[in-house]
Amino acid sequence: KDATFVTFKAGNNYWSHNHLDQGAFTIYKGGPLAIDSGLYAQYGSDHHMNYDYQTIAHNIITVTDPNDNIAQPDKKDKEKSRTIANDGGQRRIGSGWGEAAPLDLNEWLLKKDFYHTGSIEKYYQDENFVVAIANLTPAYTNIYSGSGTFSDRTRRVEDYWRTFIYDRVNDVVLIYDNIRASDASFTKRSILHTMNKPLLSGNKLISKVYAQTNPSQQGG
Hints:
The protein is mostly beta strands. 10% of the residues lie in helices and 28% in strands. It contains four helices and eleven strands. It has helices at 46-52, 105-110, 112-115, 137-140, and strands at residues 4-8, 25-29, 32-34, 61-64, 119-125, 129-135, 157-167, 172-181, 187-190, 199-201, 204-206. A four-stranded antiparallel sheet has the order 5-6-7-8. Strands 1-2-3 form a three-stranded antiparallel sheet, with no helix packed on it. The protein is globular. It starts with a strand and ends in a 14-residue tail after the last strand.
């Protein structure tokens, strides 16, 4: 009941229901402290497409180009062109965005420039630390970014590496971001989602959850 649970993901897109959240993390300690936000109410709903599915609903960095406003194109005999919120997030990959998921590995390899969205380049763990170093650049940028397509979006990120460290001895999570935008004027935001409104104290942001009757939620 006093355990610390952390998640960190960084990899490729293989199927339609993946969110645009490569590099995102969560923390649970006495309750959910850093969360994967949004409500999966209905596939394709406005909330799903404009928030829950997108990068902004997760604990990761967004880089916003104000001109990244290409509308989602028509789907064959199903849905008319649709304006989607410019969240500054990752490339829009998955059948919900109009590109069908690959049928097999061969199709995935033929479209690797599209489906490749990241990789954990280094991983280390011992009794004291867990360390993962991820290259997240392809989640934001591929060879088509900036060519005027809805899925590949404008070119906003040149390099993005995230290092995730869990210090088991001191029970501390460290996140180090090394990111280079295509244009220094693009707005960069480091997103952190919490269950309750966070508290600001000087240069600290404090996330609190309160004890519940559930023995696994002691408050934290």
